[in-house]
Design the sequence.
């Protein structure tokens, strides 16, 4: 029997997408989308709001979800969007689980380097993403059927960790799998359906490596309400 992820109940908390057995849980912010399919990190936009709007929006409150111009793990897109409107910055939208090819390839590279089993990984995709599960090998081992039943039923697919990026070669707008689970259980990557962020259960070392690679990653409380938003 393989390693089984220990997720919390299916509710609106971070624990529904993270495990109780890894060292930490963290939120990975998906870049926002702008005109011409441009990609924008959250932190710079939070800083812009703080710099242009002053104390009204940089204090941590329900207006922006930011604190002193710093990105926090509980910031919500709807709050950030209001802040952007206050400073006249429009035309950005959240990623809806579509971060683009560069992001996906870079993320797969870091995760593959961290795993002792980069050639063996399970991906669980939502059938509602039209056409994205067509032709996939959908067999699932019995110890992972619980994961496959999440989110109303997911399509399992086995491939190397690198498939996370390779699958975007012909279409970079493919949406991220709901769960990514390597054979060694070194991490669990999760993306709630149509959401603006990923959640990863892993070691502090992997969090550091993700930050070094340029990802916006902040530790998050598993008992907290899910801070990301979706459609």
Sequence:
């Amino acid at each position: 029997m393989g390693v089984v992820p220990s997720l919390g109940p299916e509710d609106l908390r971070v624990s529904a997408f993270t495990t109780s057995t890894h060292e930490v849980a963290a939120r990975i912010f998906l870049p926002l989308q702008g005109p011409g399919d441009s990609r924008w990190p959250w932190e710079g936009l939070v800083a812009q709001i703080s710099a242009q709007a002053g104390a009204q929006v940089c204090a941590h409150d329900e207006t922006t979800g930011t604190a002193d111009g710093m990105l926090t793990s509980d910031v919500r897109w709807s709050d950030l969007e209001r802040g952007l409107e206050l400073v006249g910055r429009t035309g950005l939208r959240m990623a809806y689980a579509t971060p683009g090819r560069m992001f996906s390839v870079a993320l797969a590279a870091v995760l593959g380097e961290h795993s002792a089993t980069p050639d063996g990984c399970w991906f669980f995709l939502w059938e509602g993403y039209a056409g994205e599960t067509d032709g996939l090998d959908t067999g699932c081992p019995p110890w992972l059927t619980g994961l496959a039943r999440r989110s109303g039923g997911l399509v399992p697919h086995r491939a190397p960790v690198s498939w996370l990026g390779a699958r975007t070669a012909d279409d970079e707008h493919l949406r991220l799998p709901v769960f990514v689970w390597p054979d060694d259980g070194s991490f669990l990557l999760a993306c709630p359906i149509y959401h603006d962020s990923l959640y990863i259960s892993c070691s502090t070392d992997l969090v550091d490596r993700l930050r070094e690679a340029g990802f916006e990653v902040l530790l998050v409380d598993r008992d907290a309400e899910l801070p990301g938003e979706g459609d």
